Amino acid sequence: MEFRDLVMQRYATKRFDGRAVPEETVQAILDLARFAPSALNLQPWRIRVVTAPAQKEQLLGASWNQRQITSCSHLLVCCANRDLDAVVARLERALVEAAAPEPMRQAVVGMAQGLAQSLSAEGALAWAQGQVQLLVANLLLAAQAHGVASCPMSGFDAAAYSRILELPASLVPTMLVPLGYPADTPAPKLRYALDELLV
Amino acid sequence: MEFRDLVMQRYATKRFDGRAVPEETVQAILDLARFAPSALNLQPWRIRVVTAPAQKEQLLGASWNQRQITSCSHLLVCCANRDLDAVVARLERALVEAAAPEPMRQAVVGMAQGLAQSLSAEGALAWAQGQVQLLVANLLLAAQAHGVASCPMSGFDAAAYSRILELPASLVPTMLVPLGYPADTPAPKLRYALDELLV
User: Fold this and answer.
1) Which residues of chain A make contact with B152, given a CB cutoff of 8 A?
2) Backbone angles phi, psi at A73, to 5 degrees
3) Residue B147 and residue B23: Cα distance in Å, rounded?
4) Domains of chain B, CATH where assigned
5) Which of B8, B47, B194 sits opposite A198 (nearest CB)?
């Protein structure tokens, strides 16, 4: 499928029909999302996959009762990792393991440490949450490429999600991406004209 | 081209060969990027396209002398719009013009106003900057789909960019996306394994 068709066919699905997406399809979507870009390749994100109906019911109340949560097949809870020191240390280990050239490794790790030190705790979280959007954008298109509908959602109670899913304190639920098959039809896409995008 | 190939072929190009990307190709890339998703469809972003060599030279010094700035064909300066009241008012006008159903319009505008009111000035900027990442992710893939290389860049002096490009105070340069044809070759992609992505 042409990339343009992917972009135009993707839409924020409000109702799913409850059918299960095959596990291998979800794995393929997640595997593609792994290759999203991130600043300095820091990949400051993790995903919790929720499929159990009882857990979705618990999360529904923490999601303004938006029915995507319970009607989807797989609910991807995309989390920002705000522990930038750990994020940088992990990248350094990975570069060592991959036998990356020493000067490149030192340069990247040095810039990453500089970034981490320049940010307040709040700034670090905002930064990591911005990076999660890069992951989500790839996820949405990867799902569409596999014939799976999705809906990016930011309206939910992140603290309640952390509690219900027993997530580590370093991870902050940032975006939800329910996956499934649509039980609605898309409205026409409303976007500003190109001359309004440009400045 | 398959979406997987797009994702795997895209890389952060560090050196461009200076050849110009045809204007109609850049327009097609920008036109695709328009359809990036955003929360409540608020599209809180604008892009300045820089092609003049003298202006690129001026920006180089505000970009840690990273040579993508001057060797690229088109430099896209992706800006966050931090004036959320204006962003919400613009969406409301667009929904009226598009004759969107009244209950949907009221619901969307109500949620958008709630969002804008819930955020501090700093929070509004961080939010809009997060949304810009969704635009950038689409831009990078749209470029690749058109055979054009790119490089997402966040390391630059945003205030200097605003000054040099005489941008309105509401717009904050957030990500640079130089476009062109590569004069380097990609390193192997280093990404964490799927079980490290999941939590």
Assistant:
1) 37, 39
2) -85, -60
3) 14
4) 3-81+134-197 (3.40.109.10)
5) B47
One-letter amino acid at B144 equals: Q
What pTM, to 2 d.p., does this model score?
Answer: 0.96
- Using a CB-CB cut-off of 8 Å, the residues of chain A touching B2 are 145
Which residues partner with B3 through β-bridges? none
CB atoms within 10 A of CB B175: 26
CA distance A73 to A81: 25
Residue A111's contacts (CB-CB under 8 Å, 6 or more residues apart) are A40, B155
Structural contact between residues B179 and B143, judged by C-beta atoms closer than 8 angstroms: yes
- Kindly give the interhelix angle for B158-165 and B53-60, rounded to the nearest 10 degrees: 150
**From B1, B4, B133, residue closest to A134, measured CB to CB:** B133
Inter-CA distances, B125 with B27, B45, B80, B115, B168, Å? 27, 11, 7, 12, 14
Strand order in the sheet with A45-50: A45-50, A74-81, A171-180, A149-150
Query: Is there a contact between A32 and B10 (Cβ–Cβ < 8 Å)?
Result: no
pLDDT in tens, B79-131: 999 999 999 999 999 999 999 999 999 999 999 999 999 999 999 999 999 99
List, in order, residues 6 or more apart from A127 with CB less than 8 Å away: A39, A44, A84, A115, A119
Asked if B134 contacts B45 with a C-beta cutoff of 8 angstroms, the reply is no
Please say whether the beta carbons of B151 and B13 come within 8 A: yes
How many residues can be counted in chain A?
A: 199
Are the C-beta atoms of A189 and A8 separated by less than 8 Å? yes
B11-20: pLDDT as tens digits: 999 999 999 9
A98 DSSP assignment:
T
